[in-house]
Amino acid sequence: MLEEYKGRYRTLGLNIAYYRKMRGLTQEQLAEKAGIERSRVSKTEIAWIGISLDMVYKIADALEVEPYKLFIERD
User: What's the pLDDT at 1?
Assistant: First the structure.
């Protein structure tokens, strides 16, 4: 992940955590629904790793939100 995009990945991670909690899901449950590893969800939520657009789509589908919502800064 490029350092210049760290803030954007942080926003993505915070939004994933927000919608996950809103849906009452644990990281493990989200990972299972998205077909990914729990550690990947955890590392994405804290902006430790970057993820592909394919992964964003998988997570958005599992959270039942439009992918663009994961990139919008909320107040």
Answer: 74
